[in-house]
Specification:
The protein is an alpha+beta fold. The protein contains three helices and seven strands.
């Protein structure tokens, strides 16, 4: 009986460790139908200068509503509270949400996080596009 209990305990511990390791090894899934186009590639290229060394970023865009895209990522990621979106010079409010895909406490500690935003702004010249963007950031 003691041996049976030991086997069950060992199996339970192994299962728990597997679940923990799987949870910490989250991966980014591209929102269905989102793609990288010339505008997104240009935004990514310009944004690389602002990223710390060893950090990679990808930008995807979709015409789908911000709320729909945000809901997709809420299913498998933890939303991180960041200051509310800004307001553009024309009065348009930018909506954004940030999600951590690993077990980090916040964006600074995360090795894999993303931002969902609409409308999307490509650079300091305020090239605005009424589209939802998904920026994924990976730290090596």
């Amino acid at each position: 009986m003691a041996q049976s209990f030991r086997k069950r305990s060992t199996a339970a511990v192994c299962g728990f460790v597997f679940v923990c390791l799987t949870a910490s090894a989250a991966e980014f899934k591209v929102y269905p139908g989102a793609k990288t186009d010339a505008w997104a590639a240009d935004a990514m290229r310009k944004g690389k200068a602002a990223l710390p060394p060893g950090t990679e970023s990808e930008v995807f865009v979709t015409p789908d509503a911000y709320e729909k895209v945000s809901s997709f990522y809420k299913q498998n990621a933890r939303e991180v509270s960041v200051s509310p979106g800004t307001t553009l010079p024309d009065g348009t409010r930018v909506k954004w949400s940030f999600y951590v895909l690993d077990n980090a406490r916040g964006l600074a500690d995360s090795r894999l996080w993303l931002k969902v935003q609409r409308p999307s702004v490509a650079d300091a010249e305020m090239k605005v596009r009424d589209i939802t963007s998904i920026q994924v950031v990976r730290k090596k």
